[in-house]
């Protein structure tokens, strides 16, 4: 094992900062594991599969939610610069569409990227999007085909594809197997040879970019930074440039792959800071860290406040769990600067929270963590996007919940749109186009990546994507198509609010803002679903879907005619009483909508089947 | 449950104040019907009717010790099953004599036995009458052969009415026919036919029960396998309306949700003891008893039952001492099903408010309501459980 240059005292020219861009199941974590072993920062005994993916959910879904940075010493083994000692900082990137901003910050911390593609599957839409992001950041790209050990691998075919995409020669693509370790040592050598060393002004006031910020129960917030200029010393007081907040530095160091405390971090180095703050909002991704005694005057560019794109109501199934849900959200917030929530009351679902998320996966992850780590049973309402509504009197309203949609006097409504990229085998181009057009998409362009793979670029309303789009895309392309999208402003649209009325009373949980042309279908579908889920009452119950006062769909729950135990029970009064008490107990759990008794299960069933959030569950490895 | 069957003194103190009945369970059947979940056994299950009367008399002796001399008299006796008439009339008579010896039968006591139509003859009926039985309840169920087949009933379609006629000839003033409606395959014409046959038989009491599919029965298994359709509540409602129309048209008025009688004298007084908070001792395996707010029930298996008694122990398996709240729940649950209903004054404020809503919905009778009672209308009877749930605290 080569001597490890001291953290905080490594010459920039020895440092290589890189990340791995890969699709969800293309083997990034396995490759990272091999690198940890080859560089001997983790021995075989300590090695556990996918060392870097810490959270259970990440491990189970096979996706990385939060990035980390690992420092690995490496001595070039073969070819040019053989024997040269260097320090590789591998910055792991989150691998999902909702976390584009985090990905962009991770990329900004690097000089190069390994573009890792499954040699049996070729590049996927999301990888392509991140590749473009890396190219925009002027990163050096090393194309690598993984899983060459697989019988189905077609490295020649996909090497062509990669070469075409990044403008290199097919033979420039490295070939590795994370599983067997083949080619990994050569890849590490190439990282040293191809990726430029970081360049910065060591004499300038310190500037370091935060690319990740993680809350730890024992240590508080751990902030991951890449130093651009100057130097941060262990004894410094640091300053967050977006807020001006100053914090005592409790610890500084590097991860290799466990934290190693050090004296400081210099130009080009990657490491962690601990200040004792308890909330990641005080240490935000993209922000610039400087030192208080000699602060930089200009922050590094690119900082953005995380902005929720998708909202959903989260309600405890058992109303008495509400305080637990609040506490759980308070805890998750410490580690998630993008999560926002405020109390909300629903006539149908009781007390809960309106929560804002970066996207659907973010919603799913939060919900799953609440259920798993905090043992809560939750129901989430159909997710919706944020609308900007201009009123006739010149006022403007931002709507994150259909119940806030103004009634009447609406001049214009604007909805968020996204630029979406779909990669599909050319056999399914028609199917994908049909889907996108059905979802109010506008074709922006189409390119052949290779003879049989096509990249389609669409502008789509975000609202159309969060409602079972991904599922539909997968099912219409036999699972072959992949999707990526990024926010792309807003457009005016012909939108209406559809209310669902039960026996004349609106049921807030089912109100939705939908395109005018789809209102009828939505109304019919929800009304029919509710009719099948709500038990018959003593009176006839109409279910109506309405836009304002205009009813667009109607179903009727017939009145129940018999609710009496007409059996000879003899002297067993006890059984009869117990049965009645049980029914009475069941009645207490009913939600009253006006005079209609609705079992909460009916709301849950109706909401969970129309819950677009469930659609992306399938994106992880199983 | 104490081994000697002892009851709290305060429960025994007032025994019989609201009537005292004796129930005798006879847990034997010639064959088990597919819909039946009662505590009954066939010969193939190693249970022997021989000696059964003596076992029951042993429990009766224990009952005599537990209640002492506090029982004023026996108002009603009811032999149920199972099929009580699988025991020879002499054996049933011996048990009845024992009850009379222990506590004394009132001069006008109602003494009923259930019977399957095929298990009685003019001779056996005459013997029962001589033994002191005053009332007989026959399981007619239906007059449609295909319905009887689905129910596994052994008698022919005409047999129940014939047995009723034989009972009247033998001197039984009070005869009941049980009907079951809503059996898979039963048409409205089938059920009208059954009603007409029951009325033509000249009985003074008819019970009509909806077919209830109980878990664990052969019928439930057949439905689960898709061999038979599940009963439909709307059909059951139609049948109930048909029953009430036909029976009341023939002069049999409802006095409980599932029971109709030609006169007040024709009502089953024994069941009314159950429904109006009276006391009774249930003899036999699985039998339930109630004395002064204590409910208990015997072990279910006839062998275990006999074994307990042979050891000189109570056959009681479990019991509960009703709280005031539970007594209130039972009172509402049972009385609201009766033609005299429930005094509104027994309800709490929320209950009275709920009664007001039920009135507005046409489920309670307005005239009776004005006079302070909650009495179900015809539609209210069909939704009785919903009204009860609303009225309860």
UniProtKB/TrEMBL annotation, chain A:
GO terms for molecular function: GTP binding; GTPase activity; ribosome binding; translation elongation factor activity. GO terms for cellular component: plasma membrane. This is Elongation factor 4. Its main location: membrane. It is found in: Cell membrane. Belongs to the GTP-binding elongation factor family. LepA subfamily. PROSITE patterns: G_TR_1, G_TR_2. GTP binds at residues 25-30, 146-149. Residues 13-199 form the Tr-type G domain. Required for accurate and efficient protein synthesis under certain stress conditions. May act as a fidelity factor of the translation reaction, by catalyzing a one-codon backward translocation of tRNAs on improperly translocated ribosomes. Back-translocation proceeds from a post-translocation (POST) complex to a pre-translocation (PRE) complex, thus giving elongation factor G a second chance to translocate the tRNAs correctly. Binds to ribosomes in a GTP-dependent manner. It is a peripheral membrane protein. It catalyses: GTP + H2O = GDP + phosphate + H(+). Signal peptide: none annotated. Its EC number is 3.6.5.n1. One of its GO terms (biological process) is positive regulation of translation. Keywords: Cell membrane, Elongation factor, GTP-binding, Hydrolase, Membrane, Nucleotide-binding, Protein biosynthesis.
UniProtKB/TrEMBL annotation, chain B:
Keywords: 4Fe-4S, Chaperone, Cytoplasm, Heme, Iron, Iron-sulfur, Metal-binding, S-adenosyl-L-methionine. GO terms for cellular component: cytoplasm. Its main location: cytoplasm. Residues 14-253 form the Radical SAM core domain. The keyword Cytoplasm applies. It comes from the Bacteria. CDD domains: Radical_SAM. GO terms for biological process: porphyrin-containing compound biosynthetic process. GO terms for molecular function: 4 iron, 4 sulfur cluster binding; coproporphyrinogen oxidase activity; metal ion binding. InterPro entries: Aldolase_TIM (IPR013785), Coproporphyrinogen-III_oxidase (IPR034505), Elp3/MiaA/NifB-like_rSAM (IPR006638), HemW-like (IPR004559), rSAM (IPR007197), rSAM_sf (IPR058240). The keyword rRNA-binding does not apply. It is found in: Cytoplasm. Probably acts as a heme chaperone, transferring heme to an unknown acceptor. Binds one molecule of heme per monomer, possibly covalently. Binds 1 [4Fe-4S] cluster. The cluster is coordinated with 3 cysteines and an exchangeable S-adenosyl-L-methionine. Belongs to the anaerobic coproporphyrinogen-III oxidase family. HemW subfamily. This is Heme chaperone HemW. It comes from Rugosimonospora africana.
């Amino acid at each position: 094992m080569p001597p490890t240059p001291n953290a905080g005292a490594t010459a920039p020219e020895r440092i290589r900062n890189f990340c791995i861009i890969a699709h969800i199941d293309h083997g990034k974590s396995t490759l990272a594991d091999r690198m940890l072993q080859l560089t001997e920062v983790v021995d075989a005994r300590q090695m556990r599969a996918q060392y870097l993916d810490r959270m259970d959910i990440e491990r189970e879904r096979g996706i990385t939610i939060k990035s980390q940075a690992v420092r690995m010493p490496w001595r070039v083994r073969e070819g040019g610069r053989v024997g040269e000692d260097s320090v590789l900082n591998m910055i792991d990137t989150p691998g999902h569409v909702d976390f584009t901003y985090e990905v962009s910050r991770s990329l900004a911390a690097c000089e190069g990227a390994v573009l890792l593609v499954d040699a049996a599957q070729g590049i996927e839409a999301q990888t392509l999007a991140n590749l473009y992001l890396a190219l925009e950041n002027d990163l050096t790209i090393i194309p690598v085909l993984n899983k060459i050990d697989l019988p189905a691998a077609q490295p020649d075919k996909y090497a062509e594809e990669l070469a075409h995409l990044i403008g290199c020669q097919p033979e420039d693509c490295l070939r590795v197997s994370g599983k067997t370790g083949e080619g990994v040592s050569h890849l590490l050598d190439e990282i040293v040879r191809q990726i430029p060393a970081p360049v910065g002004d060591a004499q300038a006031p310190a500037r370091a970019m935060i690319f990740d910020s993680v809350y730890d129960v024992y240590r508080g917030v751990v902030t991951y930074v890449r130093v651009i200029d100057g130097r941060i010393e262990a004894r410094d007081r640091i300053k967050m440039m977006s807020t001006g907040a100053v914090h005592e530095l409790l610890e500084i160091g590097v991860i290799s792959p466990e934290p190693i405390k050090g004296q400081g971090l210099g130009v080009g180095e990657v490491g962690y800071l601990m200040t004792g703050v308890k909330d990641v909002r005080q240490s935000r991704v993209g922000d610039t860290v400087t030192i208080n005694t000699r602060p930089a005057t200009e922050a590094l560019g690119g900082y953005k406040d995380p902005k929720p794109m998708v909202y959903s109501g989260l309600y405890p199934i058992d109303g008495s769990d509400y305080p637990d849900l609040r506490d759980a959200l308070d805890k998750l917030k410490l580690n998630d600067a993008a999560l926002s929530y405020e109390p909300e009351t629903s006539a149908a679902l009781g007390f809960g929270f309106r929560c804002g998320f970066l996207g659907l996966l973010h919603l799913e992850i939060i919900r799953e963590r609440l259920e798993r780590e905090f043992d809560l049973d939750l129901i989430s309402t159909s997710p919706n996007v944020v609308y900007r509504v201009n009123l006739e009197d010149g006022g403007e309203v931002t709507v994150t919940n259909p119940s806030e949609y103004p009634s009447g006097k609406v001049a214009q409504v604007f909805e968020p749109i996204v630029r979406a990229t779909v990669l599909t085998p050319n056999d399914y181009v028609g199917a994908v186009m049909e889907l996108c057009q059905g979802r109010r998409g506008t074709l922006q362009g189409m390119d052949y990546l290779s003879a049989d793979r096509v990249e389609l670029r669409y502008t789509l309303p975000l609202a159309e994507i969060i409602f079972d789009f991904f599922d539909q895309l997968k099912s219409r392309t036999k699972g072959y198509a992949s999707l990526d999208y990024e926010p792309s402003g807003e457009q005016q649209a012909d939108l209406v609010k559809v209310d669902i009325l039960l026996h004349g009373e609106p049921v807030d949980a089912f109100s939705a803002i939908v395109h005018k042309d789809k209102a009828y279908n939505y109304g019919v579908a929800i009304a029919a679903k509710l009719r099948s889920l709500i038990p018959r009452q003593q009176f006839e119950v109409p279910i109506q879907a309405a836009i304002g006062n205009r009813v667009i769909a109607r179903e009727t729950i017939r009145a129940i005619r018999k609710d009496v135990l007409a059996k000879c029970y003899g002297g067993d009064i006890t059984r009869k009483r117990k049965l009645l008490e049980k029914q009475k107990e069941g009645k207490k759990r009913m939600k009253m909508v006006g005079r209609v008794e609705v079992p909460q299960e009916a709301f849950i069933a109706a909401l969970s089947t129309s819950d677009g959030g469930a659609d992306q569950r399938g994106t992880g490895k199983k | 449950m104490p081994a000697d069957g002892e009851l709290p003194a305060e429960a025994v103190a007032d025994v019989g104040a609201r009537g005292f009945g004796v129930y005798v369970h006879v847990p034997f059947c010639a064959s088990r019907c597919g819909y039946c979940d009662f505590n009954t056994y066939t010969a193939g299950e190693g249970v022997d009717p021989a000696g059964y009367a003596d076992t029951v008399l042993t429990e009766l002796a224990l009952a005599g010790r537990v209640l002492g001399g506090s029982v004023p008299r026996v108002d009603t006796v009811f032999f149920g099953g199972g099929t009580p008439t699988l025991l020879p009339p002499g054996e049933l008579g011996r048990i009845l004599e024992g009850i009379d010896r222990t506590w004394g039968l009132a001069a006008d006591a109602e003494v009923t036995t259930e019977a399957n139509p095929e298990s009685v003859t003019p001779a056996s009926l005459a013997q029962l009458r001589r033994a002191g039985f005053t009332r007989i309840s026959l399981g007619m169920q239906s007059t449609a052969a295909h319905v009887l087949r689905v129910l596994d009933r052994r008698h022919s379609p005409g047999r129940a009415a014939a047995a009723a006629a034989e009972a009247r000839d033998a001197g039984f003033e009070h005869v009941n026919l049980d009907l079951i409606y809503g059996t898979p395959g039963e048409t409205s014409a089938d059920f009208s036919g059954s009603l007409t046959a029951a009325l033509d038989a000249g009985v003074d009491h008819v019970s009509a029960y909806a077919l209830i599919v109980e878990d664990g029965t052969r019928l439930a298994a057949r439905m689960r396998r898709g061999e038979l359709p599940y009963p439909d509540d709307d059909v059951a409602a139609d049948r109930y309306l048909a029953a009430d129309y036909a029976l009341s048209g023939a002069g049999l008025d409802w006095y409980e949700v599932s029971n109709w009688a030609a006169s007040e004298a024709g009502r089953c007084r024994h069941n009314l003891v159950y429904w109006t908070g009276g006391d009774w001792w249930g003899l036999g395996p699985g039998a339930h008893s109630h004395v002064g707010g204590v409910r208990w029930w015997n072990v279910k298996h006839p062998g275990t039952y006999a074994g307990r008694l042979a050891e000189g122990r109570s056959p009681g398996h479990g019991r509960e001492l009703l709280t005031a709240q539970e007594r209130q729940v039972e009172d509402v649950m049972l009385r609201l099903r009766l033609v005299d209903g429930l005094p509104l004054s027994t309800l709490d404020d929320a209950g009275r408010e709920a009664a007001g809503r039920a009135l507005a919905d046409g489920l309670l009778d307005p005239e009776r309501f004005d006079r302070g009672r909650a009495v179900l209308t015809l539609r209210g009877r069909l939704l009785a459980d919903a009204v009860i749930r609303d009225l309860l605290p």
